[in-house]
Amino acid sequence: MLLQFLVGTLVSVINIGIHALVTIVAVGIARGAGLRQTRRPRVHLMGVMVATAVVLQVAHTLEVLVWALMYEVVQAAAPGSDVLYFVVREEGLSH
Q1: What are 50-86's pLDDT values in tens digits?
Q2: DSSP assignment of 4-68, as one string?
Q3: Cα torsion at 69, 83, 59, 55 (round to 10°)?
């Protein structure tokens, strides 16, 4: 049980680091892009927001893949099962 807790904590810290790094980069890019003068500021802002959301979604996907890799390493899923499906189901993303 202690090993499971430690592995889960390690993966959580890795994922928090990934999310923090990507968020910092996305905010920096969004700030720079958001300050540009354009002929259609609302469309431009919408584009910046969509791009930021896509980047954060990519980060989340990477985080799911980190969990899937760890599940594979510690053999947390049943043999022969799709580890990625197992992770997504456990994350509550399949509902």
Answers
A1: 988 999 999 999 999 999 998 888 887 778 888 888 7
A2: HHHHHHHHHHHHHHHHHHHHHHHHHHHHHHHTS--SSHHHHHHHHHHHHHHHHHHHHHHHHHHHH
A3: 140
Cβ 19 vs Cβ 63: under 8 Å: yes
31 contact partners, CB below 8 Å, separation of at least 6: none
Q: pTM score, two decimals?
A: 0.75
Q: Which residues contact 40 (CB under 8 A, 6 or more apart)?
A: none
**How many residues does the structure list for the chain?**
95
Q: Provide the greatest CA pair distance for the chain.
A: 59
